[in-house]
Design goal:
With 224 residues, this protein is an alpha/beta fold. The protein has one domain: 3-Layer(aba) Sandwich (Rossmann fold). It has 8 helices and 7 strands, in the order E-H-E-H-E-H-E-H-E-H-E-H-E-H-H. It has a 7-stranded parallel β-sheet with strand order 3-2-4-1-5-6-7, sandwiched between helices. Helix 5 links the parallel strand 5 and strand 6. The structure holds adenosine-5'-triphosphate (ATP) and magnesium ion. Adenosine-5'-triphosphate (ATP) binds next to helix 1 and helix 7.
């Protein structure tokens, strides 16, 4: 299964969410790969520090991206692809290949405006692919007492994309783990609040898939 984090806006949390989801899948026992298609290489460098057992590949062109994604999908249960900021050819290629597209946005008017572009590109991929991928908005960097965060929460369902009900709070732990080469679930008490948010998001987006795949495996083992 290919999961992609994408958006036209930079700095919304694509790499943060990609790395955390990849590590959660790995921690559930699945062979997992991360495909970094952003020239900044933030997620590939980060994940190599967190978990060397996760396969890491980078790709700079749509052609490389296509072949790397197809190869990784053959040999891993899950491939998490981190798209660059922008919805150009690389992101479009990933979206056409993906089963699930995660579009993080943070509480800013520019991020809200980016949703229209994300929706258009998602529909384009879905038309080519007979309805795939599923697309979902994830509200990131949400602040409890902040007016724009509250407005975003109320207004997001009207933006034309499905919205995850789990939101990710704006917490220092995310910045710290990126700097220290770890993830919030491995950051002890300092990461506890952030880990609770990420875990809820993971379960909402992938809990059923993970359970089904685990049951399939058990069944196969039982059948010898
Ligand atoms: N929920 C959060 N709370 C606090 N800081 C966050 C949160 N999510 C991400 N950040 C921080 O925001 C910055 C941007 O996050 P990230 O690199 O994941 O975004 P991105 O969409 O991948 O950016 P780019 O477009 O540059 O690739 C980073 O410094 C990251 O640590
Ligand atoms: Mg990034």
């Amino acid at each position: 299964m290919l999961i992609v984090t994408a958006n036209s806006k930079g700095g919304v949390g694509k790499s943060t969410i990609a790395v955390h989801i990849a590590v959660s899948l790995y921690d559930c026992g699945f062979p997992t790969a991360l495909l970094d298609t952003d020239k900044q290489r933030s997620s590939s460098q980060w994940i190599a520090e967190v978990e060397p057992q996760i396969t890491v590949r980078v790709a700079d062109t749509p052609e490389n991206c296509l072949s790397a994604a197809q190869e990784l999908i053959q040999s891993h249960d899950f491939v998490v692809a981190d798209a660059p900021g922008g919805l150009e050819d690389l992101s479009r290629t990933l979206l056409i290949l993906a089963h699930l597209a995660i579009f993080p946005i943070s509480p800013s008017i520019l991020d809200v405006r980016s949703v229209e572009g994300a929706t258009a590109v998602l529909r384009y991929a879905q038309k080519i692919n007979g309805g795939r991928p599923d697309g979902i908005l994830v509200l990131n960097k949400m602040r409890t007492r902040d007016t724009i965060s509250q407005e975003l929460k109320v207004g997001a369902p009207g933006l034309g994309l499905k919205v995850a009900s789990s939101v990710i709070r704006d917490l220092q732990a995310y910045r710290d783990v990126a700097q220290q080469g770890t993830v919030v679930s491995r950051f002890g008490r300092k990461g506890a609040q952030a880990a609770a948010d990420m875990d809820a998001l993971f379960k909402e987006l992938l809990g059923e898939t993970v359970n089904n795949m685990t049951n399939d495996r058990r069944q196969k083992l039982a059948n010898g």
